[in-house]
Amino acid sequence: MLDKFKALAWHLQLIVLVGIAGLLYLSVWYFVTSGTRAEIQAVEDQVVQKTAQNETARIATQRINEFRSLYASKSQEYDELKVLLPEQREITNVLQGLQDTAGESRLIVMRFTPREDAQQEAIMAKPVEIEVDSNFNNLRDFFEKMAKLQRIVSITDFKLMTLNSQSDTRTLHAQFLLTAYYASPDDLSKPAQPNKPGQPPAPNGQQPPAPAGQQPAPPPAAPPAS
């Protein structure tokens, strides 16, 4: 056998050797490394699976963080709304504060008559009929303080008259309807909503109440000399 192989031409010998080497390589590749290749493929599949799971977890974590941020923002908006809209049990204190503000502005309160509470969509309104005697400067000071209140109030149905008998502190008689808004217990029990709170609607086609920090009603013009 060996003699026959030696008798072959060199290029035929090379072909036979290459064929034998190929058979040996295929045998080793198929019988020896097949288990290792299967393990490698299983590890690669696990890597792909874990990568997909990690991406899913990353997206879920990002969404959780976004939800926490949104929840904190809405909670802050809700707390701010509760400051602007007091609870029903606090409305008496709010009305007392309005009376104190009138006293600080040196208004002479002739009438301070609360009306029945009224439902206006999602909030409650507490209208109060007010009549005061004052001079122009003190009345303007009262309106400026109303504009700076950390509560939602509105002033409508404004009437202004000059007094026949005047003094330094009493030259005008003013009548107006002051409405304080508050949240009902049912509204306070609801979770904060994504939308920002809008201005409360005004009854009977009147102007809506100005938000805190803005003038609720323009100061009255100086009355003509009597």
Task: Write up this protein.
The protein has 226 residues and is an alpha+beta fold. Among the domains are: 2-32, no CATH class; 88-205, Alpha-Beta Plaits (2-Layer Sandwich). The protein is built from six helices and five strands. It has helices at residues 2-7, 10-32, 34-84, 91-104, 136-147, 185-188; strands spanning 108-114, 118-120, 123-134, 153-162, 172-182. Strands 1, 2, 3, 4 and 5 form a five-stranded antiparallel β-sheet that branches.
Tag the structure with descriptive keywords:
Alpha-Beta Plaits, alpha+beta, 226 residues
Helix count from the secondary structure assignment: 6
Sheet/helix structural class: alpha+beta
Overall shape: rod-shaped
Low-pLDDT residue intervals, each spanning 5 or more residues? 191-217
Query: What's the name of the CATH homologous superfamily of the domain at 88-205?
Result: Ribosomal protein S6/Translation elongation factor EF1B
- CATH A-level architecture of the domain at 88-205: 2-Layer Sandwich
**In angstroms, what separates the terminal alpha carbons?**
143 Å
> At the first level of CATH, what is the class of the domain at 88-205?
Alpha Beta
Q: Can you give the mean pLDDT?
A: 75
Tell me the number of strands. Answer: 5
What's the story with the biggest beta sheet? 5 strands, antiparallel
Would you tell me which CATH topology of the domain at 88-205 applies?
Answer: Alpha-Beta Plaits
Based on CA atoms alone, the radius of gyration comes out at 43 Å
Series of H and E elements: HHHHEEEHEEH
User: What portion of residues belong to β-strands?
Assistant: 15-25%
User: How helical, in percent, are the residues?
Assistant: 40-55%
